[in-house]
Specification:
Layout (H helix, E strand, L loop, with lengths): L1 H23 L2 H4 L3 H25 L9 H25 L3 H27 L16 H31 L3 H32 L9 H42 L1 H10 L15 H18 L20 H21 L21 H21 L1
Helix pairs in contact: 1-3, 1-8, 3-4, 4-5, 4-6, 5-6, 6-7, 7-8, 8-10, 9-10, 9-12, 11-12
Length: about 375
């Protein structure tokens, strides 16, 4: 169990250091920004918190003082929560009200750290076994532990309540994503507070809940990883969004290939440029592929038999639109064969095309052609 808890502290510490290093790389152009400096302070305190946590799990005295790492972990955790609350206020607004609330949080954080330090030494924290900090019936130490949990739970609640309104207020897409992720993080870390409270109270009552004790460490590590991501989202978020958009575009480009290939082989004139394997300027290539599929489909109109029914995907129940996609794919497949043999069916589709499709809406057209291409590929494999 201790191995798992130590691993959770290490994961939380590594994610904190990764976020700090990532943000420090932007120091040259961002250091004059007060919000950036507050963010760096938040990440430094986050790193200190979980470094002390990992050292505390080792059990060795820090600077020759037993349980000093535990005290420093708790004090830096309070400061870290206060700093996270302040960075949220700075993200939301820079008015006098935000400055006043930030000052309130600083004063509260200092008071909590003084209270925790006093309780720690009054409870003889340096002379107690490390296991007592998991939960004890000794009144002063129990008060210390519960005061610490309250100091963590309250910022989780306030951050969660603030993130939703702030996300709706901002017009910055990456900041809005960061705030939404931060609200989820607050929920996960609040679950850590609940699990830790259960651990403390059951230990004080002499009840052993076994492996469930690890839940608090798991929630803590997961929450800190998410927090590290949310505090750096404004930097990597836009790049990640562009990467996801590129991946979706490439997936659509590849999905259309089997249908485009056969239409191109039947009507080479549909290609504006010689086909190639390059994926540079992918948006343009995807638009060209859609246009070329349409042109190839039009060339097939005299050979498309309207009586051909493609049926449906036998693997599952499908919608009417999916059945139509299979029908269109089957008609294209039959028409390609008819064109090779110069066979014109009696019920050919010699007028019109793409039944009920809005060719001016590229996103809808792409989605429809992707369905037809997928159905075409399945029919191709089945034949």
């Amino acid at each position: 169990m201790n191995t798992t808890r130590t691993l959770c502290f290490v994961i939380a510490a590594l994610s904190s250091y990764a976020a700090l290093v990532y943000r420090l790389c932007q120091a040259r152009r961002s250091w004059k920004d007060g919000a950036y400096r507050t963010l760096i302070a938040t990440l430094l305190l986050q790193c200190l918190t979980f470094t002390m946590g990992a050292l505390a799990m080792g059990g060795a005295p820090l600077l020759g003082v037993a349980n000093l790492a535990v005290l420093l972990m708790h004090l830096s955790a309070v400061a870290f929560c206060v700093s996270a609350q302040i960075i949220l206020l700075r993200w939301a607004a820079a008015d006098e009200g935000a400055v006043r609330r930030a000052r309130y949080w600083v004063i509260t954080g200092i008071a909590l750290d003084v209270l925790l330090t006093a309780l720690f030494f009054l409870a003889d924290g340096t002379d107690r076994p490390a296991s007592d900090f998991d939960g004890t019936s000794e009144p002063l130490l129990l008060t210390y532990l519960l005061a610490f949990i309250v100091s963590q739970a309250i910022p989780c609640v306030t951050i969660y309540l603030q993130c939703g309104p702030y996300a709706r207020m901002t017009g910055n897409a990456s900041l809005r994503q960061a705030l939404r992720l931060l609200s989820v993080t607050a929920v996960v870390l609040f679950l850590y507070c609940l699990a830790r409270t259960v651990n403390i109270l059951t230990a004080a009552a002499g009840v052993d809940i076994g492996a469930w004790k690890v839940a608090a460490s798991v929630f803590s590590a997961a929450g800190i990883v998410m927090l590290s991501l949310s505090l750096t989202n404004s930097s990597w978020g836009p790049a990640a969004t562009r990467l996801l958009e590129w991946a979706r575009t490439y997936r659509s480009y590849r999905a259309l290939y089997p249908l485009w290939r056969d239409l191109y082989e039947s009507s080479p004139d549909i290609a504006l440029e010689p086909p190639g394997a390059s994926v540079s300027d992918l948006d343009y290539r995807l638009h060209r592929r859609v246009v070329e599929i349409r042109d190839g489909w039009r060339d097939l109109r005299p050979y498309i038999d309207r009586t051909v029914d493609g049926g449906r995907d036998p693997a599952k129940e499908v919608s009417a639109e999916s059945r139509q996609a299979f029908t269109e794919a089957a008609q294209i497949k039959r028409a390609l064969q008819a064109k090779l043999t110069h066979t014109v069916p009696r019920n050919n589709k010699d007028a019109g095309d793409f039944d009920d499709r809005d060719t001016n809406n590229f996103a809808a057209e792409l989605a429809w052609l992707t369905q037809v291409a997928a159905a075409y590929s399945k029919l191709d494999k089945a034949s």
